[in-house]
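Deliverable D5.2: sample structural annotation.
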Amino acid sequence: MVGNTVPAKPETDVAYPLSRRLMVVLPVAVFAGLAFVLAWGLNRNAADIPSALIGDPVPEFSLPPVEGRTLGLSSADLVGEVSLVNVFASWCVACREEHPVFVRLAADSQVPLHGLNYKDRPEDAAKWLNTLGDPYTRTGADLNGRVAIDWGVYGVPETFVVSAGGRIAYKHIGPVTEKALNETILPLVERIRAEAKERRP
């Protein structure tokens, strides 16, 4: 019967509560997503960030020596033996943290260590090495940071393992600790040396 027909609710009556629910749920969902991404980023080890240059030849470069040193650093210097390249700066707090590890490494003569001095004032770099000790075989002054960019450096300190063929084999982001040196970097150096020896005729 016509008298018993229930009138349909206007569309606005249905849409309004739905839009109100979305106004409440959407910000909560966005906040939860951002919180997850932030937590993931904070808990991620920066040293695990891969380098796009792994396996590639080192970039072509030639840098003058740091003030007070006689040997600069170039891509040609990184061919012929497995070596480490450490990107450092006197203004870098974490570089000071890892420096004693490199001084001990140099004393042991286990692997050549070269320094790439990043965006430093010449006198500051010289004073830093003169005061804390100079563990580097060669040290190039990258005054404008252009060479470090070519190496894919995110920030200092970073340390690279370079094969005897002049290819980047590994990248360590952040200060090198005794643990990282003894458990990851030096075993990799020995493995690269052994593999190269096996390939010799």
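Annotation notes: Residues 37 and 43 are 10 Å apart (CA to CA). The first helix runs from residue 11 to 43.
The annotation will be released with the project's public dataset once the embargo ends.
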